[in-house]
Amino acid sequence: MPCYEIDGLRPVIHPSAYVHPDAVLIGDVIIGPRCYVAPLASLRGDFGRIVLEEGSNIQDTCVMHGFPGTDTVIEVDGHVGHGAVLHGCRVGRNALIGMNAVIMDKASIGESTIVAACAFVKAGLEIPARKLVAGMPAKIVRDLSEQEIAWKIDGTRCYQDLTVRSLASLRPCEPLTEIEAGRTRFEFPGVIPLTDVKKGN
């Protein structure tokens, strides 16, 4: 993977974490146990420190960066959706950052909070635990239900499983030229969008 040392500081990756070969890690980046870093994520620890705590994940095309002297942190079981930008902020334990959301400097996202897709969390904003946050600029919409928090936990568990699957079997290959007979599909019973979970009630 593109992993770069700068000014004598090099990234640290726990052996049980999976970092895709097309992610980029620079300098003061610390990846904890059982983390997943997706393709094209950019974790630039060339000014401030970047930390992924145990079991957290950061998905495709996400960016983590911060000013000098700051830590940009995803706490234990934090979950960051595709295309999000985290700059000098803290994502709390078991929180979820939606796709293409932006979390600015010194913002703090509380434990088990969900930040909606495309939300803009302004600098310095402190969001309490177990809230739904949405909008540009982001505002607290309401408390989360137990069902919503359980759905988030299940989703993060899927990414923790993906870490194990990727370490065990993800490798470069040559593509087939046509679909083989009896081609199988991945089966994940019960893994469905939150809107479908709510329809089931």
From TrEMBL:
Which CDD domains does the UniProt entry name for this protein? LbH_paaY_like
Membrane-crossing residue ranges in chain numbering: none
Database matches in InterPro entries? Hexapep (IPR001451), Hexapep_transf_CS (IPR018357), PaaY (IPR011974), Transf_Hexapept/Carb_Anhydrase (IPR050484), Trimer_LpxA-like_sf (IPR011004)
Q: Name one GO molecular function term.
A: acyltransferase activity
Q: Highest taxon of the source? A: Bacteria
**Per the record's keyword annotation, is Acyltransferase included, yes or no?**
yes
Task: Quote the Pfam families the UniProt record gives.
Answer: Hexapep
Q: Which UniProt keywords apply?
A: Acyltransferase, Repeat, Transferase
Does the record's keyword annotation contain Repeat? yes
Checking Gene3D superfamilies in the record gives: Hexapeptide repeat proteins
NCBIfam families registered for this protein in UniProt: PaaY
State the name under which the record lists this protein. Phenylacetic acid degradation protein PaaY
- Which organism is the protein's source? Parazoarcus communis SWub3 = DSM 12120
> What lineage is on file?
Bacteria, Pseudomonadati, Pseudomonadota, Betaproteobacteria, Rhodocyclales
